[in-house]
From TrEMBL:
Its EC number is 1.1.3.6, 5.3.3.1. This is Cholesterol oxidase. Belongs to the GMC oxidoreductase family. It comes from the Bacteria. The keyword Isomerase applies.
Amino acid sequence: GRRTTVPAVVIGSGYGAATTALRLGSAGVPTLMLEMGRLWDTAGADGSIFCDMLRPDHRSSWFRTRTEAPLASILWLDLVNREVKPYAGVLDRMHFDEMDVYVGRGVGGGSLVNGGMAVTPERDDFARILPGVDPEPMYRRYYPLANRMLGANSPDPAWFEDTDCYAYARLSRRHAERAGFGTTFVPNVYDFDYMRREAAGEVPKSALASEVIYGNDHGKRSLDKSYIPAALGTGNVTLQTLTRVTSFRQEADGTYVLTTERIDELGEVRGTAEIACEHLFLGAGSLGSTELLLRARDTGALPDLPAGLGEKWGPNGNVMLGRANHPWDTTGLVQSGMPALGIDNRHDPDNPVFAEIAPVPAGIETWASLYLAITRNPERGRIEYDAATDSARLRWREAQGQPSIDAAKAVFDRINQANGTAYRHDLFGDTRAFENRFTYHPLGGCVLGDVTDAYGRVRGYRNLYVTDGSLIPGSTGVNPFVTITALAERNAERVLAEDF
Ligand code: FDA
């Protein structure tokens, strides 16, 4: 393959990567962004960029023959998943022995597929999550900056109380309050004014047309509408899509040399190339960045990478569950795909839980209330490099998820008791009420202060950085992307001031 040379490379285009690319570009550093997925800016034959949740097609999934939705069944019926053609689709479910990890694929990473919930942790919690980071500048400067850049906004309260599309959230709020739990509004990067106009029939529908997890055609300020155009607009950042970094090494003069593989949208390999750079930023996500570093260490390319690599991985205590609603408690046919409320039990010392009230945008009355509970499960797993398959393995046992289930159960047992309701046992393929064999929030593997210094510089090597969710040790107590972004802002500022 050919070899090109650039001053800086950013691997990935999720929160950490996009933030870093903007700050490098703004500082005048010519930067190449490499993303294994495609750019999602062109409508297909049906006039849509993305497919919706109810009729998933090839665009939904990263090289699968069948979709793998988080809600496996309704009334045990496999109504949700579809056969699809293998394609560079937007959602990937990475399979490991006892845990699956959902990630976004494409320009914008997880921002393309996620629920858009933009949550800033409480300051006391932050000190627990990242004890090595001074909270003062985070809360004075970097969290507000991240929220502003990401376009976090909140619904008009009067509209929220009235609109059919949040009947499901108001019902869950009522049930939580009856059990003595408080709820809180959660800001979102989906434009709530656009959603209001969707509800009024004034604009094409997206959040109100079952669009979530496989992308949103309208309304959502994913990174390809915020940080990434700003980065490209500096004139110093170039984006190369459908390009996967397979490995990298370091030459005697300190130059990093990446091996990359280019594919087309059907997965055909179009060629390999080497890219050399002086500064290398890993923003490939918790699994992606950790795998690249482990491969570099364990194959001997960068033998001095630290021993803590791969450690302190966690699923952010994620547990999904459903409750059965009474026949008279209907939630309506149209549910906004973007969550807007959370049950806030974070201050309970025994069972701290932040449970997002999740939609079931099935287009039918399901008599189900769905939740994604975020618990503070202290269990941690480990990512390892498996030489035989040249890939990462996630060491996480299903039993390690039990503390998450216990905490969620303590909260939702009380809600069920207060309302005379029960759990749904038909949603996860078998009869379980609590599903935590997957996570939306993979965190850790290259933990700040262990594998890197306090600003994301990888120990043992110069000009090598981690910028994404792998810096955070396994848990944030709330949805993580604002924290990932704010931390990337903070680290980029320091690195640009000192290393360039
Ligand atoms: P992220 O995973 O976003 O980006 C990594 C990028 O690198 C990807 O685009 C990937 O394709 C690319 N890549 C990986 N390896 C590569 C390689 N070798 N070469 C080239 N490119 C490579 N969070 C939240 O705060 N609020 C919410 O509401 C939700 N909801 C939600 C729903 C769903 C369905 C999911 C899957 C996730 C969420 N999340 C969420 C989680 C959130 O999206 C997640 O924490 C962030 O996207 C993680 O950001 P990172 O920067 O770590 O990487």
